[in-house]
TrEMBL record:
Modified sites of kind N6-(pyridoxal phosphate)lysine: K197
Known cofactor(s): pyridoxal 5'-phosphate
Keyword Acetylation annotated: no
Family: Belongs to the DegT/DnrJ/EryC1 family.
Annotated protein name in UniProt: dTDP-4-amino-4,6-dideoxygalactose transaminase
GO BP, sorted A to Z: polysaccharide biosynthetic process
Species per Swiss-Prot/TrEMBL record: Nonomuraea pusilla
Length: 391
């Protein structure tokens, strides 16, 4: 059977679901209400940002939240609110988006890049333990691909060593760890509303926390150093304008009502894909132990055969089933190292960068009927791996 990249017929010609999806009726009505009100900014007296923040914090099992312009700023604000800054080290996993590290730099601290678990690719508690120094002030676990990190072990380590824990939950809306929602498991949790995420307003983010004093400091960081209830032109602390708009909040608030159904849809695709892939030299990267709700931002696949991965990605796209290469290890990024980032040896992250590919959320939203297309395209491309290795 001729590969599509060589002129053959593609496995799939139907389009994948659009992402972001079109506004539903509830979103359209609330966005119109906000637009008609003229109360678009977060400080003009509208209520939608506050309603979103309260609802999202409640979903995370905590009392407090602060809506922000994006999750990178949210991580920065959480770190600043927890007193992390110059002279401090913050441990981050090697297999994650670069913003997990650059937010630490933005706060004035030093990222320390450590390895991930070779099986599930989440931050390794053993690697955290081995990298601790007198300067370590915080650990930043990432709930990668929509499944939770090993929060009990990380929390125990943090408690014993007096470390703050900031959860990077950018990809994990609705995920649960041992029946507890992510985001509310550490000292602060940060979610993203960037355009690829499970809930999106194009951009945006939200910080959640359980402690009132931490909330007050994070709020001040995001509101130009003001204090809640204080004078408008009083700025007792250093802060920035990091706020979300009412229009963005109007897109996001109704989304909470359908989030669980969309998670179910993605999980159904992933379950079907696992069955369809049986017998192929491809395995699904497992969720970490303790995962009781995987929100499935991504389906990560590990290639277990010798194949030119770049060719595979091109060939899969030609077959109508595009895959993603995933993250390069943070410890190999010169830009981070030039800024003083400390990188520990990370063989598991380096191996993931060579052998793991992603099925993105847009494809997962097609549901179980589309899973055979993934398996058929992979089988077709892998059958031609000799020609791909020669290409």
């Amino acid at each position: 059977m001729t590969l599509a990249i060589h002129g053959g017929a593609p496995v799939r010609t139907a389009p994948w679901p659009a992402w972001p999806p079109p506004l539903d009726d509830a979103q359209r009505a609330l966005v119109t209400e906000v637009l008609d009100s003229g109360l678009w900014g977060a400080t003009q007296g509208g209520s939608v940002v506050a309603r979103l923040t309260e609802a999202f914090a409640r979903e995370a099992g905590v009392a407090y939240g602060v809506a922000v312009g994006n999750a990178t700023l949210g991580l920065f604000a959480a770190l600043r609110g927890l007193g992390i800054g110059r002279g401090d080290e913050v441990i981050v996993p090697a297999y994650t988006f670069v913003a997990s590290a650059t937010a630490v730099l933005l706060a004035g601290a030093t990222p320390v890049v450590v390895d991930v678990d070779p099986a599930d690719l989440h931050l390794s508690p053993a690697a955290v333990r081995a990298s601790l120094t007198a300067a370590t002030a915080a650990v930043l676990p990432v709930h990668l691909a929509g499944s939770p990190a090993a929060m009990d072990e990380i929390g125990d380590l943090a408690s014993r060593h007096g470390l703050a824990v900031v959860e990077d939950a950018a990809q994990a809306h609705g995920a649960r760890y041992r029946e507890r929602p992510v985001g509310g498991l550490g000292d602060a949790g940060v979610f993203s509303f960037q355009s690829s995420k499970a809930m999106t307003a194009g951009e945006g983010g939200l910080v959640v926390c359980r402690d009132e004093a931490v909330h007050g400091r994070v709020w001040s960081v995001c509101n130009v150093g003001r204090r809640q209830g204080g004078q408008w032109y009083g700025h007792p602390d250093v802060g920035w304008n990091l706020r979300l708009t009412e229009i963005q909040a109007a897109i996001l608030l109704p989304w909470l009502d359908r989030l669980d159904a969309e998670i179910d849809q993605r999980n159904a695709f992933c379950a079907a894909a696992r069955r369809e892939l049986a017998g192929l030299p491809v395995s699904v990267v497992p969720a970490p132990p303790g995962t009781t709700r995987d929100s499935r931002h991504l389906l990560m696949l590990r290639l277990e055969t010798d194949v030119d991965r770049d060719f595979l990605l091109r060939a899969m796209a030609a077959e109508g089933v595009p895959l993603d290469a995933g993250y390069p290890p943070l410890g190999g990024m010169d830009a981070l190292l030039k800024e003083g980032t400390r990188a520990e040896p990370c063989p598991a992250a380096e191996e993931a960068a060579r052998s793991v590919v992603w099925v993105r959320q847009q494809l997962l939203m097609a549901g179980p009927p589309a899973a055979p297309h993934l398996a058929e395209a992979l089988a077709k491309v892998l059958e031609h791996r000799e020609s791909s290795n020669a290409s």
